[in-house]
Amino acid sequence: QVRLQESGPGLVKPSETLSLTCTVSGGSLSSYYWSWVRQPAGKGLEWIGRIYHTGNTRNTNYNPSLQGRVTMSVDASNYHFSLQLTSVTAADTAVYYCTRDNFRTPIRVGAADSWGQGILVTVSP
Amino acid sequence: DIQMTQSPSSLSPSVGDRVTITCRASQHINDYLSWYQQKPGQAPKLLIYAASNLPSGVPSRFGGSGSGTDFTLTISSLQPDDFATYYCQQTYSTPQTFGQGTRLEI
After folding, report:
1. What's the rounded Cα separation, in Å, for the pair A115 and A54?
2. Cα separation, B101 vs B88, whole angstroms
3. What is the pLDDT of residues B36-64, one digit of tens each?
4. Of A87, A68, A66, A93, residue with least CA distance to A15
5. To 10 degrees, the CA torsion angle through A9, B85, B7, A102?
6. B87/A44 CB distance under 8 A
7. What does pLDDT average to over chain A?
């Protein structure tokens, strides 16, 4: 069974760059999309973006609400993918989850069938 | 962006009750609709995919229906372990979007 684990700094200063990595174990990155979702304390889920296992930019999608501050990358040979969010503010404080989006049969529709445990990132001086 | 609207926002059912949560998409999404269950301090867990399909291990008291713009999550007989927050999500187009959540409270 595939497992996902987020890692990275838990505290980032305003205006700096948030960098997180998701390590995948128990399975390959091949033939899946890999996403990031965040959740501010006490609030709902926000989709940040996704990247295909090849890392091809044509198969990379970001949420326009983040106004071009997001970059994702993948290193399939080392079983991890990454998120960078630039120019962070307090509004970016949240629990960040990495997920596997499954478009393969039978799930087919890209549901997030595996989630990391989440990592709390706080933006504060 | 496709807006996902869940109702109700919260519910206080009793154990054994039949519970229904609805999710409406602002435009047609075929069956690209998933439901997730989230308990406090935990990551969401996939409950239903493609509107009506249960992943392995999800109890059969959970059911999903709908297509197009209107979808329903039903819990046929609520169990103590089911008190949680439930989210719908569309994966028909990007940005993927979630409903605001429905909290089942004791």
Report:
1. 20
2. 7
3. 999 999 999 999 999 999 999 999 999 99
4. A87
5. 70
6. yes
7. 95
Query: Residue A71's pLDDT is what?
Result: 97
Nearest to B3 by CA among B106, B97, B68: B97
> In Å, how far is A46's CA from the nearest CA of chain B?
7
**Residue range A11-39, pLDDT digits in tens:** 999 999 999 999 999 999 998 999 999 99
All residues of chain B having their beta carbon less than 8 Å from the beta carbon of residue A51 are: none
Tokens 């307090």 -> residue? A90
Between residues 41 and 70 of chain A, which touch chain B (CB distance below 8 Å)? 44-47, 49-50, 61-65
User: Cβ contact (<8 Å) for A106 and B53?
Assistant: yes
Beta strand residue intervals within B10-101, DSSP E: 10-11, 19-25, 33-38, 45-48, 62-67, 70-75, 85-90, 97-98
Whether the CB of B43 is below 8 Å from some CB of chain A: the reply is yes
Across the interface, do B36 and A112 touch by the CB < 8 Å criterion? Answer: yes
With bands split at pLDDT 50, 70 and 90, how would you rate the model's confidence at A8? Answer: very high
What does pLDDT average to in each consecutive run of 10 residues of chain B (106 residues)? 98 97 98 97 97 96 97 98 97 97 95
Cβ pairs bridging A and B (under 8 Å): 71
